[in-house]
Structures are given as structure tokens and as C-alpha cells.
Amino acid sequence: MPAPKTTLWPLEPHTRAKHEILRRYLEAWTAILSLGKFPRIAYVDGFAGPGVYAGGESGSPIIALEAALQHKDRIPPTTVLLFLFIEKDEDRADHLRSLVGTMDLPKNFHTKIVSATFEEGFQTHLLHFYAKDERPLPPTFAFIDPFGWSQTPFELVKTILSFPSCEVLINFMYEEVNRFVSHPHHPATFDRLFGTERWREVLELEDKHARRALLHDLYVRQLREAAGARYVRSFEMRNDKDVTDYFLFFATNSRKGIQKMKEAMWRVDQSGEFRFSDATNQAQLLLFSPQPDFEKLAQAICARFASREVTVNEIEDFVLAETPFHETQYKRNVLTKLEDRGVITAVSPPAKRRRGAFPPELRLRFSS
């Protein structure tokens, strides 16, 4: 959707789906990190908005605070939760301040609402106070959700991911990127967005599917290779014409983080395709197929490990890093069936191991 001109605007169905992913993940993220005895934990909303929609629905800053409040009794009083909400529009920032001011927050919940661009706000109010002293950022979740594509420099994403326990969830505005990518005035801006000039390869493509695949895959590759993220997943959001509007990219180096994000994504699309379309029934989060294609997962696992001997833990890492599926699915729905078919055999299994049980250290041999 185009950037709204008003302080508040209606909540669209794909935004509701996006916020469902964000809410579910933050509930798990807060609970997990609260057990880590970190002195500080930070949530950064780079394009915070007014905190509420025209219909009264909560925006991302309020969702983040509500998710943390669910676990306030489990969070040690010595752990400070930093909430940095960045919103360039003064009216929207003021509206958010008024909302946050009405909330009953614990003393260790520190909120800061700044009127600035994402880059300015992050550099000045978080990075400045940590990296300048060669101290790492605290464990940080950065939600980067712009309306456009000119204010999310890849170098800043790379900086965030360079610190331990830091993650990003990025709204990549594909429709606008694709529309303006050939414009002669914007090459430098796209260089900053992608962190490379390789996006120019799309200029030679006419096929819309090939263009989408190239831009999507390039950003994934940049997150993995340039920013060093071990795990990257995307979620496709489609508009009311069932055309790709934007992608959500999640990047982390945490195995637990990718597990929980996949659980959140599967709640929205249980087909495993990780898509949501406004063209479907808007009264509910309608899924694209009734159940996931586990045969596709079985084929991927067999292709990767054919004629090899590997641990169950290695298979799980492949499932988490390279496929849309999560760790609770592949054992029951894939490994058990592969063992029944004789495609895999247990190597020196423990004496008490029952068939169909796959502990992490168990070694399996795949046929060719």
C-alpha cells in the first residue's frame, strides 16, 4: 500500500497477518531471553507508526509491549528491557507517546520514542551508547517495517547482525522495488538497499517471475553471505489481486530463534509455503493448502544426505536452515517413513532405542 497521509489509517489483512507473526515470535523471544540473565534486552521498531490503527487495533510497538508484559513476572527485576520506537512523523510519534504513557509498565521496562529516520534513530539512541565503547549491543530484535525502500540501508542491517544474539525482521517492499528498479535516478539507493550492485542483473529480465526470484534470492544471499546470518527465512505477502506486495525476511544466528520464528510462520500458513494473500477469505487467515507437503521435505533430505552417514542433529540443522519446515515435523512425518521404507538405517543404535525414535546423537545411514 502507498504511504498513508493521515496520522491513523485502516489495518489491512496482510498487515494483520504480519502482526500475528510478530506477536507470536516476540512472546517466545521475550520468554527465552528473560531466562538468559542478560542485563539488558532491546526491541527496536524502526518505523513505529502511531501505535494503533483507525479501527483501534494495536500497532507493532504496542504488540511488542504487550508481548513483554505477558512475561513480566518471569523477567528478573535486574534485567532492563529497552524499547526503542523510531518514527519520523511527529504527529504519529506524539500519538504513540500518548498511548505508551497510559500503559502500566514495570520499572525495568524502559521506552524511548524518537522522531527520526530509522538510521538516525538507531545510530544515535542505541548503537552510539554501546558500539562506541566497543561493547556489543544487548540482545536485540529489530523490526524494520517501512512503507518504502529508501530508508533501510543494508549496511545497518549488517551491523545489527554482526553482534551476538541480535536478529532482524525486515519488510522488503518488493512491489515498489520492482516498480522503480529501472528508474535512472535510483541506482545509488538500490546499492544501499541491497549492499551490492548485483541487483542490476534484474534489468536484463523481462519475465516477472524471474525478476521476483532474482531480487528475493539476492536479498537472502546478502543476509547470509554479507551479513553472516546463519538462518534466513522469508514470508511472502500478496495483495488483493494476489500479486506479491512484499516479503518479510527474518535473519538470525540463533537456532532457537529460527525454530520459534518458523512456529510463528506456520501458525499463519500451515501449508509451509509461507504466503498470505488478501485475495483469500479476509475473515480469517485462510491457508493455501490443507496440509504441508512432507514428501517434498523427504525428497530434500534424501537428496542432501544420499549415501552418507549423519547424525539426527545434522539433519535437523539442515531442515531449520534450508527448508521451510521446523524441527517438530521431520521426525514423525519423514524420518519414520524413510526408516519404514528402508531408505535409512540406524547405525549402532542404543540398546533401548525403539523404532521411530530419533535422538539427536543417533547416526543414520542413507541409501543411494
Describe the model:
This protein is of the alpha/beta class and 368 residues long. The chain folds into two domains: 13-277, Rossmann fold, CATH 3.40.50; 294-366, Arc Repressor Mutant, subunit A (Orthogonal Bundle), CATH 1.10.10. The chain is 41% helix and 17% strand. The chain is built from twelve helices and eleven strands. The chain has helices at residues 13-33, 60-69, 90-101, 118-130, 154-161, 174-180, 187-194, 208-226, 255-268, 294-305, 312-322, 327-341; strands at 40-45, 80-86, 109-114, 140-144, 166-172, 231-238, 244-252, 275-277, 309-311, 344-347, 363-366. The strands form two sheets. The chain has an eight-stranded mixed β-sheet, with helices on both faces. A three-stranded antiparallel β-sheet has the order 9-11-10. β1 (40-45), α2 (60-69) and β2 form a beta-alpha-beta unit. α1 (13-33) packs parallel to α2. The termini are far apart. The model is unreliable at 280-290 (pLDDT under 50).
Q: Name the poorly predicted regions.
A: 280-290
Task: Specify the helix fraction band.
Answer: 40-55%
CATH architecture of the largest domain: 3-Layer(aba) Sandwich
CATH class of the largest domain: Alpha Beta
Order of helices and strands: HEHEHEHEHEHHHEEHEHEHHEE
List keywords for this structure.
17% strand; Rossmann fold; Arc Repressor Mutant, subunit A; alpha/beta; 368 residues; 3-stranded antiparallel β-sheet
